[in-house]
Specification:
This protein has three helices and no strands. By secondary structure, it is an all-alpha fold. It is flat, with a radius of gyration of 12 Å. The chain starts with a helix and ends with a helix.
Length: 56
């Protein structure tokens, strides 16, 4: 399983259990790009997918 596939499974698990999950709102592409610029690095696709969905 790739890291991106694992992120998708985690997202599915969290969304299937929203009654007990605690997460924030997702980030859009502009927010992610700004964060990458601010820290001077590019997030890996698996982490990018996670913050697109949950923001943290």
């Amino acid at each position: 399983m790739t890291a991106t596939e694992a992120s998708e499974k985690l997202i599915d698990l969290i969304l299937a259990n929203e009654d007990i999950a605690n997460h924030a709102e997702g980030c859009d592409a502009g927010q992610i790009a700004a964060a990458e610029r601010d820290i001077g690095m590019t997030f890996p696709p698996s982490y990018r997918r996670h913050i697109e969905e949950f923001g943290t």
